[in-house]
From TrEMBL:
Residues 341-492 are annotated as: Disordered. SUPFAM superfamilies: PH domain-like, Second domain of FERM, Ubiquitin-like. The chain crosses the membrane at residues 505-524. This is FERM domain-containing protein 3.
Length: 571
């Protein structure tokens, strides 16, 4: 009896496992998950725990043993997506940044987006000019500690808080000046709302950077934002494409292609190289999901897309969630009392520091909290050795639902300087691992690789008189290489793709013919007495084929083989 109970208990443990989800305030939610449970079930549990209704902007992210990050797919079983053994640890993060975060219906949603953007600011993903950085940090200070009080906040108090990877004394003084003189009287809710409005106008708002290299081997960061596809290099945004201009996203191995139509139907192809094939596939899936979420009017318009336009090749993927317009329409129908929000003071975090402030509590109930408050100085000392520079800059943006950030003075497709410092987010928070292997083919493929980022049918995305990104050293042979490149590659590569497709089709047809030949030999030469073979042999058509065609062909082949054998023997 005891052994039966123990075996039953073991089987029960095999059917379920523990899963921990780290929330945006760095607290943790742990639950028991059935082995066949899908990602949607876990996501619903987390949203119910947070009392969150506007949940379509969020997702659950996890990291595989190769340090590659993934978004949990809600339509698939959790265990089938993991490459390690339970228990599992994941993170709740903003997956689709709201085009206008101030327009979110509920305050709990705005607060969670605020926590995400504050995290982006600290890790260097939200890079801006120093004036904008000071304003953002002052809003955080106001939301966390309230109005300036000379009795509680001595000289240099802003230096006790860590808003960026690194910042100067001058920036700290400017943060304190804004907090003292411009934000007095703002409640935490108002300060957070103003923070969101300011962050929305920045060039790097909503950027989840994917490290890549261009065709010349220069480092770049690719990202998908609510307004389109961007490429960041040095301290500049060197490319920006609105979502309605992007016609196709494709990847092959480590190579990622973006097909777009620019002004007056000019075709553009941007080509970049990811560190690994898995990173490239993740980049492609993120692009497909973001384009579907922000571009389409209805989720019924979303179609399954393929990573390649060749026969029998490539991955297929379809975004299965709601689109942005549907999410906003659904949010407008919410009718309930606003849920209570327990704003958390900053707590020691694995990825983002916090400010300790009085008795504020986590947004998670006390019984489920695992993060423990520590003093300000202890939290700061653990972060003093960060090697990243301080953020900084902004470009005005309209308030319409999907208006692009690229309509400023610099133009939507030219280079735009968004910071004094090069874009360099922390490697620990990048969605894909960074490869420093000098033998990486992405660094040496120049002439025979896919098209450059400036050419397709003789058109150019950027003019030659644009300034080069700062912080990027040009290759010595780069100018000579660009001169030797052909100006029109579109028709040539189109022909190559057709030839490859025809070759694949020919090989498949040849394989089918070989399989039919094997079946014919089995029918005519074998002595297998199976029912379906016996029925085929008895048909008049087969007997006619056997005696009039196959037997003469067999005798002819036997004669030729004997002749060749005798010829070789005589030699």
């Amino acid at each position: 009896m005891l052994s039966r109970l123990m075996s039953g208990s073991e089987r029960s443990l095999d059917r379920e496992f523990n899963c921990t989800v780290r929330l945006l305030d760095d607290s943790e939610y742990t639950c028991t998950v059935q082995r066949d449970a899908k990602g949607q079930w876990l996501f619903e549990q987390v949203c119910q725990h947070l009392n969150l209704l506007e949940k379509d902007y969020f997702g659950i992210r996890f990291v595989d043993p190769e340090k590659q990050r993934h978004w949990l797919e809600f339509s698939k079983a959790i265990t089938k997506q993991m490459r390690s053994q339970p228990p599992y640890t994941m993170c709740l993060r903003v997956k689709f940044y709201p085009p206008d975060p101030a327009a979110l219906k509920e305050e709990i949603t705005r607060y969670l987006v605020f926590l995400q953007i504050k995290r982006d600011l600290y890790h260097g993903r939200l890079l801006c000019k120093s004036s904008d950085a000071a304003m953002l940090a002052a809003f955080i200070l106001q939301a966390e500690i309230g109005d300036y009080d000379p009795g509680k906040h001595p000289e240099g108090y802003s230096s006790k808080f860590q808003f960026f990877p690194k910042h100067s004394e001058r920036l700290e003084r400017r943060i304190a000046e804004i907090h003292k003189s411009e934000l007095t009287g703002q409640s935490p809710e108002t300060a957070e709302l103003n923070f969101l409005k300011k962050a929305q106008t920045l060039e790097t708002y909503g950027v989840d950077p994917h490290p890549c290299k261009d065709v010349s081997g220069n480092a770049a960061f690719l990202a998908f934002t609510p307004f389109g596809f961007v490429v960041l290099q040095g301290n500049r945004r060197i490319h920006f494409l609105k979502w309605n201009e992007v016609t196709k996203l494709k990847f092959e191995g480590k190579t990622f292609h973006i097909y777009a139509t620019h002004q007056e139907d000019q075709k553009i192809i941007l080509t970049y190289f990811a560190p690994t094939p898995e990173a490239c596939k993740h980049l492609w899936k993120c692009g497909v999901e973001n384009q579907a979420f922000y571009q389409f009017e209805k989720s019924s318009q979303v179609r399954t897309v393929s990573s390649s336009n060749l026969f029998f090749k490539g991955s297929r993927f379809r975004y299965s969630g709601k689109v942005a317009k549907e999410v906003m329409e659904q949010s407008a129908k919410i009718r309930r009392e606003p849920p209570e929000i327990h704003r958390a003071g900053m707590v020691p975090s694995r990825s983002c520091p916090s400010i300790t402030h009085g008795p504020r509590q986590s947004s998670v109930p006390r019984t489920r909290r695992r993060a423990v408050h520590i003093s300000i100085m202890e939290g700061l000392e653990s972060l003093r050795d960060s090697g990243h520079s301080t953020p900084v800059r902004s470009v005005s943006s309209g308030n319409s639902f999907l208006r692009s950030h690229g309509n400023g003075a610099e133009g939507g497709h030219g280079t735009a300087e968004f910071s004094q410092d090069p874009y360099s987010p922390s490697d620990s928070v990048l969605p894909t691992p960074v490869s420093n292997d000098p033998s990486d083919p992405a660094q040496v493929r120049h002439t025979n690789g896919p098209r450059s980022i400036q050419e397709e049918g003789g058109t150019e995305l950027c003019t030659q008189n644009q300034a080069k990104p700062q912080g990027v050293k040009p290759k010595g042979k780069r100018s000579q290489l660009e001169k030797t490149r052909p100006t029109q590659h579109g028709p040539e590569e189109g022909v190559n793709q057709v030839i490859c497709s025809l070759a694949r089709l020919f090989l498949v047809a040849l394989a089918l013919l070989f399989a039919l030949l094997l079946l014919l030999i089995v029918l005519t030469e074998s002595e297998l007495d199976l029912a379906f073979l016996r029925d085929i042999r008895r048909t008049p058509e087969f007997q006619q084929f056997h005696y009039e065609y196959f037997c003469p062909l067999r005798r002819w082949l036997a004669c030729k083989l004997r002749w060749m054998g005798g010829h070789l023997t005589n030699k």
